[in-house]
Amino acid sequence: MMGSGVFVLFFIGLLSFTTAEDITKDEGVLVLNKGNFKQAMDDNEFVLVEFYAPWCGHCKALAPEYVKAAAKLVEQESAIKLAKVDATEETELAEEHGVKGYPTLKFFRSGKPIEYNGGRQADDIVNWLLKKTGPPAKALTSVDEAKAFIGEKPVVIIGFFKDQTSEGAKQFLAAASATDDYPFAITSEDSLFSEYSVTGEGIVLFKDFDEGKNIYEGDITEEGVTQFVAANSLPLVVDFNHETASKIFGGEIKSHLLIFLSKEAGHYDSHLADAMKAAKAFKGQVLFVTINTDEEDHSRILEFFGMKKDEIPGLRIIKLEEDMAKYKPDKYDLSESGLTNFVQSFLDGKLKQHLLSEDLPEDWDKEPVKVLVASNFDEVVFNKENDVLVEFYAPWCGHCKQLAPIYDQLGEKYKDHETIIISKMDATANELEHTKIQSFPTLKLYKKETNEVVEYNGERTLEGLSKFMETGGVYGQAAPDIEDEEEIDEEGDVPAKDEL
């Protein structure tokens, strides 16, 4: 879900139900609507509800994992139920629960909702739900139980505490309760202390990759344990895919080195060993991520960074804060020393942000809608003699394509106006230091004399846009709290940080 905001949907029309309806199931998932929603909440203490749209790409990707999660809960004889609501049909229900994007998942405990913030894979969904409905850490009473627990998942954490009422144990359990992605266990049994060579209080993270396990050191605090798990629960170099995406971009480590490689060209064989060596020095500070550029699904990532296929193997560093900052090396050196120097320069604050820019077309002002790029943006837009409307668009965005003919008509209407300029900029290929665009299309009016910026949030019609211009940005202007929203294109795609 990209950037700092989410796409707001305005729900039109209300459906009326006078009697409760039967609750049906679709592959083990309850199908809810306005008529049976309350009944489902009354009948079940724990319900995870997905508000979805049939056309949404993210919803389609989630669907099979959601069904798998429901099946796993049935196998475990869990009282937790999974349900779904078609928010495009059940508009009143979606609005009632504050649905602002697709998919939205909410967990209801005795009818009271909390936001779901777990992963999108079946195991992640089940783990999150079990954490929210049971003890934060499983009690282990034998070596066999511990071995079975360790073998169940790629990453597990066990706390060894002779006194489970100690302050260290309390801090460990607090961290377990706050960490949804990985299972925790706790034990006081002497046989387990002996089996795993633990003396005194201890915490061990077991994993089926890299060094196999990590031992916690230092004072036991909730924050310390959380950071320990974040630093050690992913491989030194993690490959980006649908399963790892949420852990990469939703994790505690916000600085990432992205290594773009082609498996077909043998880049993984050539460069992965050096990446592993370099990553050890930055464990817990910078996450090393490989991206296979042969995957068709990853093509938009290259577009996002303005990279061409002939730049592979290539590098970028990103820093995830309110906005995403990107950094590019002077040259692509994927040796251990090259990677180390690039990352260290970033940590030392020696790198300047990398902003994308296209070359300025010679005929940029030939058509009624003027073409802006990063290099001519300030000169055109901040000219105080003109009111300048800018459409920030993405070439792949469905809503942008729908707006294009209307926007061209708007440009034609004002092509001879003395003080109004209609313009557009491909915001996926051009970035501005002073303006961050997080939704497509975004329409901003830069007012003459003051350069005040007003965002348009009215209907995307020639009449609506014309009124916006004629009223100096009063008609249809966006409320201040809407300016950071995101938009979903017709495939349900959001240009998101956790989607890279």
Automatic annotation (TrEMBL):
It holds the Pfam family Thioredoxin_6. Residues 476-500 are annotated as: Disordered. Its main location: endoplasmic reticulum. It is an enzyme of class 5 (isomerase). GO terms for molecular function: protein disulfide isomerase activity. It is found in: Endoplasmic reticulum lumen. Residues 14-134, 349-474 form the Thioredoxin domain. GO terms for biological process: protein folding; response to endoplasmic reticulum stress. Residues 481-493 have a biased composition (Acidic residues). Coiled coil: none annotated. It comes from the Eukaryota. SUPFAM superfamilies: Thioredoxin-like (SSF52833). Keywords: Disulfide bond, Endoplasmic reticulum, Isomerase, Redox-active center, Repeat, Signal. Disulfide bonds join 56-59, 397-400. Residues 1-20 form the signal peptide. GO terms for cellular component: endoplasmic reticulum lumen. It catalyses: Catalyzes the rearrangement of -S-S- bonds in proteins. Its EC number is 5.3.4.1. NCBIfam families: ER_PDI_fam, pdi_dom. Belongs to the protein disulfide isomerase family. This is Protein disulfide-isomerase. It comes from Halocaridina rubra (Hawaiian red shrimp).
